[in-house]
Automatic annotation (TrEMBL):
The keyword Cell membrane does not apply. This is Nuclear receptor 2C2-associated protein. The lineage of its organism: Eukaryota, Metazoa, Chordata, Craniata, Vertebrata. InterPro entries: Galactose-bd-like_sf (IPR008979). SUPFAM superfamilies: Galactose-binding domain-like (SSF49785). The keyword Nucleus applies.
Length: 134
């Protein structure tokens, strides 16, 4: 069965370094009210680490309108390897991104570029990663 498989995660920045209010954990807390809010900057990112190799099948990202990304770059790798580019995504719905792909990974990096916000901030309410352990 598919389920969220993330073990560890890091993000490029947190607004005003206010981790309690805007930290990365809010992307996974299933709470509609909370979010990860990045600080200003041209390129923001999220890196996900999986406890073991997974075949990622689906990725779902819910942005806040006005703080989304016009270009998302996916990179991934197996343990001990360098990140390699998987694809560039141009979200059609400016508030949400859903993508299906089949890649075996231990790490996934999502880079958010070309933010719709003048200062480059990205706001993500929900990040869902579905797949199966190999």
């Amino acid at each position: 069965a598919e389920h969220t498989l993330v073990k560890g995660m890091s993000v490029s920045s947190v607004l005003n370094r206010d981790v309690k209010q805007f930290g990365k954990k809010h992307m996974f807390d299933a709470n509609e009210e909370t979010c990860w809010n990045s600080d200003q900057g041209a390129s923001q990112w999220v890196t996900l680490d999986f406890p073991r190799t997974v075949k990622v099948s689906r990725l779902h990202i819910q942005f806040q309108g006005g703080f989304s990304s016009r270009l998302c770059t996916l990179e991934g790798c197996r343990t001990g390897e360098e990140l390699v580019k998987i694809s560039d995504l141009y979200p059609e719905d400016i508030n949400a991104l859903q993508i299906s792909f089949e890649t075996a990974l231990d790490k996934l990096k999502i880079t958010f570029e070309n933010s719709t916000d003048f200062f480059g901030r990205i706001v993500v309410y929900h990040l869902g990663v579905l797949g199966e352990r190999l």
